[in-house]
Amino acid sequence: MDLREFTEYLVKSIVKEPDLVKVQQFGGEEDSTILEIIVCDSDKGAVIGRNGKMANAIRTLVQAHAYLLGLNKIKINIDSF
User: Fold this and answer.
1) What is the DSSP letter of 70?
2) Is the pLDDT reported for residue 80 higher than 90?
3) How far is residue 33's CA from residue 80's CA, in Å, rounded to a whole number?
4) Are 12 and 37 spatial neighbours (Cβ–Cβ below 8 Å)?
């Protein structure tokens, strides 16, 4: 499972409307990878969590999976539409 699929699986398990979740992966500068997580506006609070705890947990799991895949720097952006 690649990094984008793993992140999409994590986020879809949290939100109320998993069909509206979209994760895009971009190559950043100097061996970094950028993940853009786009969710429904009503699900943004669930993905970020109280005081950002859910976002930090997602970030930790994604970085651990990226380490297993041999990727170094991961940046995650959470946005809504």
Assistant:
1) T
2) no
3) 20
4) no
